[in-house]
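Problem 3 from the worked examples.
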Amino acid sequence: MPLDIRSICPACKQNKFKTLFSLPFNSKKMRDFLRGYYKNFSKLNELDGFDYNLLECKNCKFIFQEQIPDYNLSKELYENIIDRNDSLTKKNNFEKKFYRKLSYEVNLIKGIFKKENHEISILDFGAGWGFWLNFFKKKNFDVSGYELSETRVNFMREKGIKTISDLDNVKDKFDLIYSEETFEHIPNPRDTLIRLSSLLKKNGFILLRFPSNFLFKYKLNKNYIPKTDCAHPLEHINLLNKKSFKEMIKETNLEIVDLKYKFNPSILNFLRDLKNIIYFDSILLKNKLF
């Protein structure tokens, strides 16, 4: 079967849910979205008989897609169905487009660790094409990238970035594990977070960024149309928030740290910053082990 069914909450492992929204994958609304967004999705008919179900856990209120791509479909989705050239083109002028954000993150990381850049080891979990890592590599940070896509791994290696493709064989420990727009795609975010926490140095940090689902629940009515939002069908299978992370860190030595945003004083940049916070959320987790 191309889709797996999640029968327990990915955040708290309980099994009592409420269905917030349901739409067959062979419905016109869903077909129109999938055909319009995925130009290379030739096996769309294989999704017939499955449903796009958004469930809310009655215990922790975590919202997630119940029926998600299995390993083979997931690999096909991110390696072939999503157009590689289009994905890479979107990263053109990456450093110029996101310079202010990147500079903020450099200052945030330097402020956390208070040591020389080359002494700070960073793992980017879900590194993609490695543009974020390349920026930090130029700043003399000790960087490594974890990525499953062979195409993207090879691209990073050509840039001289150290890559990891199997977390189980990682022997190193890191000061910081960074992950941007990755956890919403992972079938088992709780188990993944537990594994990542074991790769932290004492007093290490995990910094996560993910799509905000603020007030999204109230948009789910009969008129809702699937789109590239925080519940993007087949891709954004977890709707993350700080409360869900409180559940996921219970079996770790992690604690949530207050992450204060610094707004740029100019009106234009303030509005840009505000838009970024509305559409994306962040959480900073600290390893409590000393």
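Problem 4, a separate protein:
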Amino acid sequence: MHELTGKLVKAEELPEEEKNFQKNYVKAPSFLSIHLGVKASVLPAGTDCHHFVLEDDWSNLEKPYGSIFLSIPTVLDPSLAPEGHHILHIFTTAGIEDWEGLPRKDYEQKKELVANEIIRRLENKLFPGLQDSIVLKEVGSPKTHRRFLARNDGTYGPMPRGKPKGLLAMPFNTTSIDGLYCVGDSCFPGQGVIAVAFSGVMCAHRVAADIDLEQRSPILDTGLLGVLRWLRTLA
């Protein structure tokens, strides 16, 4: 969000609330995502839906490609894939700077090489024979996420600079600048499809009320917005 306000509002005009947000949150790195369609036989019986892989030691946790997140939705709902197959969604943190300035051919080759290395690690750690079981593979780099998700540098979103302060420390839809609203995963209630959809719906209602397309209670609005602003100061 702070990149957007930096473009719309001059630094000296930025509300104190937004300055505090920038102090408390930092832009998260981007990520590499891999979607696989695999033969069901490669997964042992009783395989869990979610997995987290961190080899070696904890020092690799925040390094690019250091840890791997894996979700297998077809474990919970087999109808999501053709019979006899599973879907694997794999992702790991990655910086967009590693992907900038590459010729198209080199870029595609790098996606293939990095994805295959991630798959190899999962094969060694969880599912022997994974590579040979693949029937469909799609790879998205940080540049992919920047292009199709309209994210600055393909970022995953905001993350606390220090100890998390809770969702109430995040911006709500309104700001102290008349006519400027906030919406998306930089706002309450945070990241995730459901959370972002909720943010969008609530922002739409807020705008509609402010331009008299929906009923509102000025007294309640003033009190509620005051409480919300106070809560943000606690962060």
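Solution to problem 4. The chain has a mean pLDDT of 87. The two ends are 17 Å apart (CA to CA).
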